[in-house]
Amino acid sequence: MLLPILLTLITGTLFQMADLNGKGEAFDWLLDLHKGHFGSLNLEKVYPFLNALGLLGLAITGISLWLQTRRRARREMEQG
Fold it and tell me: What is the pLDDT of residues 38-57, one digit of tens each?
């Protein structure tokens, strides 16, 4: 789940930096990767949804782990 999100983050940032330096046209291939176009494999229509599902999954698991540590700490305080 993390790989598509990191790829989107890195390619978007690198393209923006190139564009700010006036060299955006030379790095259009970064935009293709950013949008989910991987050579003959074109995921442009589903790639945003995959990223969204991955981010949602990471957020849910992160919140779940955070809540578990809070509950565990509260139980330890009550016992000790």
Answer: 999 999 999 999 999 999 99
Q: Give 41's strand partners.
A: 38
Whether 47 contacts 36, CB under 8 Å = yes
- The per-residue pLDDT for range 17-36, each reduced to its tens digit, is 999 999 999 999 999 999 99
- How much is the pTM? 0.73
Q: Residue 42: beta bridge partners? A: 37
Distance in angstroms (rounded) separating the CA atoms of residues 30 and 27: 6
Instruction: Please name the residue that has the structure tokens 């919140």.
Output: 63
Structure tokens at 11: 């390619």
How far is 62 from 28, CA to CA, in rounded Å? 34
CA distance 41 to 76: 51
